[in-house]
Amino acid sequence: MSIVKLQGFSLPAAGQNFSAETVSAVTNLLNLGEVSVSDVSSHFKVDPSIVIMHLTGRNPDGYTNETLTQADGDAMNKLVKAGVASIQDVANYYSAPVSAVEETFQTGYNYTPAQMSNARNGVSINTVSDTTDAITPTQDANPNTGLRGSEESLNTGVAAAINALNASNTQNSALLRKQYEEGLATATNQNTLAQGQINSSTAAGIDALNASEVAAAANLNTQTDAGLLDAQNAAARARGDINSGVASGMMGALTGNILAKDAINTSTQRGLLAAETQAGVARGDINTNADLGLNALNSGLDQARSDISTSFDRAEGMYDPYREAGTNALGVQQALSGALGQDAFNAAYNESPQMAFLREQGMRANLAGAGATGGLGGGNVQKELQRFGQGLASQGLQQQISNLSTLSGQGLNATGSAAGTATTGGTNLANLEAARADAGMQSYSNRGTNLANIASGLGTQQLNTNVNQGTNLANIESEFGAQQLNAYTNQGANLSNIASNLGNQQLNAKTNLGTNLANMNITGGNNEMNALTNAGTNRANLASALGGQALGVSTGLGNTLFQNNASSANMVSNLNNNLGINLATGRTNAGNYIADSENQTATNLANSYSNQVTNENNVINGQRETLVQLVDSGYINEAQAQTMFGEYISNLEMSRGAAASGVPNVPIVNANYANTIGNAAEAAATGYYLGGGAGSTNNAGMNFSPVQQPSLSANIRNVFPFNK
Question: Could you count the other beta carbons within 10 Å of the beta carbon of residue 293?
């Protein structure tokens, strides 16, 4: 593709769209495959994705599941086959991996390796001719004839390029000298004008400075006088405000003093009356509660005495049976001991229930034994009964005396316990009476103490109230005196400060006035000196810049001429070297081609005719694609040569304008004549080769007609509307 074909189209003005003519013309170029998406994007400064979207009408969301949709694949296939877009352009549009896009074209559209190579480089893919149109190369094929034609074309093109270079060097040298002379004259004129402008502006600046100095001095004097007058007026107003404030403060303090005294006296009387009233209430409460407490105490003591007496009576009654039993046992014990006589003993012993029972039981036993043996009336029985009775009497006596001792002891203990209980009851009753007496005495004593405390507290409160009243009145009088003293003192201090500040303000105003006037005079002198100094400096800088510009132009001219001569020599040398290299490369390629042809012929003879036809078609297509690339390279080289020549002319104009504007040491950009001549020679050789070989037949019988870029059908053109 060649961006040169878009040079005639310019960008629209800001805020406007492309014209219909531009859209139509660019669309035709795209449909003819003469420009690519990247060419349009670079020239018109638009994103390639915008161009692709408007060409195909497909959104960049057609890449799903790691593949393109059928519709997106068909649209992109048309662009790639025509050479309008490359595989990389398609991958960038869909934000898809390049490998995935290549897989789509290889498997979905059966691209061969050669076609994939063209698709990667953005070169159109030519349809392979039918086998009936294919020309089978023979073993007699010899590419040397075509090679000699290429060598003659290269020699002719190199000679023409050298002649053109010499003529261009001569023309450029004269042009450079003319531009140097014009630039030097322009720089001199601009220097003279600049010196005049500096002198004029310096003089005007000094006059303006003097005038501003005079005006500033007058303004300072006026403002100083006005400031002094304002300070005096403010001081007078401040004195009046201070005096008025002090008088108001004194009146307020006096009024507050009187009100405070009245409030103290009133509150003191109210406090004394309330204290006396509360003291009377407290006396009545104390007497009433003391009487109630004594009554309750007496009632409780009487009830306690009754409860104690009842409890003691019940306790003594519980001891009575034991006491009576002990007393009876003591009488029987005395009788049995013989202390009361024989009769008493006999009565006590014989009449004892125990002895009667034992005697009866013993006699029954002896009589029963004698009856069994038949000796009831014998003397032995009587003796035995007597002996039994004596033993029983002795034994029973001691036993009875022991039992009576136990009963008498219990009676003695019961009597002692009853005596102790009676003693405890009397003691408790005596303690209750003593507690009643102590409680009564304590109650009356506390009543007297509380009444005395109330009277004493009332007296203390009255004393404290009178003392506090006097103290408060004294504090009020003292505070009022201190307020008066502070008011007069502050008044004097404020008046003194106002007078002192007024004096300081007047002093500072006059001092600042003198300082400002002195500073203005010094500043005016410095400004005038700086203006004169800057004028001289500017003149010196202009002279130095002028000399530098003249030196730069002369040096640039010399460098340019030197570089032109050196470039000419280098280019001649490079052309000769390239000629030798091209000849050697041509011969090498010819030998390789002969060897490849012989090998291919042997292979074709060994293989089937169908494979031979396929290989021959691939060779023809490769040669055709090579020629297409040569044509494109010629266009590109020609465009680059024109572009570089335009850049050189533009740089010369920019240098001349910079020198005319007074900018020193402007670098002069030199064109790369070596690349330019090389590109021109290559373009000439390619054009001569293509033009001389058109319609001719080489030894192999191959007809190389002028290459035509494939055009898209009318239907495809309708799919590719080009809009911004």
Answer: 16
Closest CA to 168 of 685, 576, 645, 558: 645
Average of per-residue pLDDT values in the chain: 75
The tokens of 404 are what? 């009576």
* Token pair of 422 as six digits: 């009676």
pLDDT at 182: 77
CB of 657 closer than 8 Å to CB of 183:
no
Q: At what angle do helices 87-94 and 70-81 cross, to 10 degrees?
A: 150
Burial of 95 (0-12, 13-18, 19+ CB in 10 A): exposed
Question: For residue range 481-494, what is the model confidence (pLDDT) as tens digits?
Answer: 898 889 889 988 99
Instruction: Give the pLDDT score at 682.
Output: 62
The secondary structure of 367-394, three-state, reads HHHHHHHCCCCCHHHHHHHHHHHHHHHH
The answer to whether the CB of 102 falls within 8 A of the CB of 116 is: yes
Identify whether the C-beta of residue 389 lies closer than 8 Å to the C-beta of residue 359: yes
pLDDT at 50 over 80: yes
* Whole-angstrom distance, CA of residue 243 vs CA of residue 494: 10
Encoded tokens for 563: 């570089």
SS (H, E, C) 53-111: HHHHCCCCCCEECCEECHHHHHHHHHHHHCCCCCHHHHHHHHCCCHHHHHHHHHHHCCC
Q: Determine the Cα–Cα distance for residues 328 and 337; give it in Å rounded to an integer.
A: 14
Angle formed by the axes of helices 37-44 and 20-31, nearest 10°? 150
- Residue 635: pLDDT band (50, 70, 90) is low
Q: Which two tokens stand for residue 51?
A: 């161009």
Q: Which of 276, 155, 259 is nearest to 586 (CA)?
A: 155
Sign of the four-CA dihedral 655, 659, 662, 664: positive
CA distances from 285 to 272, 288, 443, 447, 448 (A): 20, 5, 13, 10, 13
Our separate counts of H helices and E strands in the chain read 14, 2
CA distances for 585 relative to 149, 151, 572, 632, 682, angstroms: 14, 11, 19, 21, 15
Contacts 24+ apart (CB under 8 A), 210-213: 210/524, 213/520, 213/521, 213/523, 213/524
Q: Where are the domains of the chain?
A: 3-161+602-719, 271-478
Tokens 């093109």 found at: 157
Q: What angle do CA 400, 404, 410 make, to 5 degrees?
A: 155
- Counting Cα atoms < 13 Å in the Cβ hemisphere of 469 gives 18
Distance CA 318, CA 312 (A): 10
What digits encode the pLDDT tens for the residues 681-719? Answer: 666 565 655 555 444 333 333 333 333 333 333 333 333
Q: Which residues contact 648 (CB under 8 A, 6 or more apart)?
A: 669, 670, 671
**84 Cβ contact partners less than 8 Å away, ≥ 6 residues apart:** 30, 33, 35, 36, 37, 55, 122
- Alpha-carbon gap, residue 623 to 598, rounded angstroms: 18
What does each C-alpha distance from 505 to 260, 452, 539 come to in angstroms?
45, 76, 49
Least Cα distance to 671 among 567, 581, 548, 596 occurs for 567
- The predicted model gives 139-163 an average pLDDT of 56
Cβ distance 396 to 300 under 8 Å? no
Query: Which ranges in 337-352 belong to alpha helices (H)?
Result: 342-350
What is the phi-psi region of residue 665: left when phi exceeds 0, alpha when psi lies from -120 to 50, beta otherwise? left
DSSP state of 665: S
Question: Do 98 and 105 form a contact (C-beta atoms < 8 A)?
Answer: no
- Looking at residue 277, its pLDDT comes to 92
